[in-house]
Amino acid sequence: MSTENEGTEVPPAPSAPPVPVDTPAASPQAGSAPDANWPPPPAPYPAAAPQQADDATQPAMDGTQPAIGAMGETQPTTGTDATQPVWGAPYQQPPAPAAPKPPRSGRGGLMAAVLVAALVAGGLGGGLGYTLAQNDDDTSSTTVSAPDSGGDFKRDPGTIAAVTAKALPSTVTIEAESSNGEGGTGTGFVFDTEGHIVTNNHVVADAVDGGKVSATFPDGKKYDAEVVGNAQGYDVAVIKLENAPSNLKPLTLGDSDKVAVGDSTIAIGAPFGLSNTVTTGIISAKNRPVASSDGSGSQASYMSALQTDASINPGNSGGPLLDAKGNVIGINSAIQSSGNGGFGTGQSGSIGLGFAIPINQAEYVAQELIETGKPVYARIGASVSLEDTTDGAKITDTGAGGSEPVEPGGPADRAGLKPGDVITKLDDRVIDSGPTLIGEIWTHKPGDKVTLTYERNGKTNTVEVTLDSRVGDS
Questions:
Q1: Is 388 annotated as catalytic?
Q2: Which range (84-88, 175-179, 373-377) has the least confidence?
Q3: How far, rounded to the nearest angstrom, does the alpha carbon of residue 369 sit from its chain's CA centroid?
């Protein structure tokens, strides 16, 4: 299995279906007697429905070692090395090769044109059918008309339509481009009234060093923006709108710790460049360990994710995952994919396994980025193995660059942990691998006290550890 990120360039769309054309009725055979019922009355032509696009190394727990094997970054608009891993692989699975990434040449316009063509074709068929039916309407109608059209209905609070109507104006489509023209499309949402927008790091990573970022609201208003800060390990970033409007309405943040499996979810984003798309589902699981990277060979990101079956596709990255009341409970970040392409591009699409960064963690990271421009990570000061295992997180015999695997004077050292110890639990969470341990530690803040259960020489031990801190991604 493989997973991949959702930030992507708009791929080419399928060609529009042909416009239906009436076939003339066949004439009666020559020489036959006239038939009073010939020709038959024209039948209503059915309206054509518009088609709807619905590392083998051991990284230090303080992040000083490179982590490889898990995936991530905005799908580039130019071709990339197909040997690079793709986004969001589960810890126990090796990464799959990234899907080919198409060039950027104006595909958004192509998709819009093709979709419009399909809609026009559908409208033409519908109009023709209506006209024929109207011309032949010699008897009273047997249909019943609604007193109000759909647009006149009042949506009750709490319905999907009502929640969507309130949240959509605060959701943006983000375009990020590097200094050499590479980039892609993702999503973000309004975090505060000052113009800060929260999204994924892999959505804006191309624009961090000298690139360009813009954000477009559903009403079509587009704003240039700058990257305020980005956290590669957490896969969270904050951008700020230039000349931000005064009427911004931040989305309400929920409590991801209180989310239950089975709760309803609503995802908003720009899958395959289709901005302002809304999908629904449920919380399928909590605390799902997911590892990812931006595909550039840099350090991996880790999350203890919310899993949802709401349809999430390339372009949804950075968008809000809402609860039934419209509160943000997560940031859509990765999908598990079967590898089938979307819109004929070879890019993978949703199979109902999406993953979101819990908002409690993302909110803390975003606030740190706004205040200091740099992320702050919790750490235990020990290097753990990233090998595929279900036995726990093993402290390695050597650290990064030949350093000590247990940092002298660090939290793990003070707690008596040694190389070879296998950590199997953090508080009440089962730890089956090194990446799982990292993801769980990063759900905490520096200074938090956690209880580690570990095995040494066949014996199980527990110890309390006070987490230390590390500033920045390097």
A1: no
A2: 84-88
A3: 20
Arithmetic mean of pLDDT, 140-165? 73
Q: How far apart are CA 317 and CA 332, in angstroms?
A: 5
Six-digit token string for 427: 């508080």
Closest CA to 473 of 235, 296, 152: 235
Of 235, 309, 421, 468, which residue is the catalytic one? 235
Q: Which of 297, 456, 439 is nearest to 377 (CA)?
A: 439
- Is residue 317 annotated as a catalytic residue, yes or no? yes
Whole-angstrom Cα distance, residue 226 to residue 376? 21
Task: Tell me if residue 202 is catalytic.
Answer: yes
Question: Helix (H, G, I), strand (E, B), or coil: what is residue 66?
Answer: coil
Long-range contacts of 400-405 (CB under 8 A, 24+ apart): 400/57, 400/58, 400/59, 400/60, 400/64, 400/65, 400/66, 401/65, 403/60, 403/64, 405/58
What does the pLDDT look like over 225-274, one tens digit per residue? 999 999 999 999 999 999 999 999 999 999 999 999 999 999 999 988 89
In the set 2, 317, 333, 348, the catalytic residue is 317
The one catalytic residue among 62, 202, 256, 323: 202
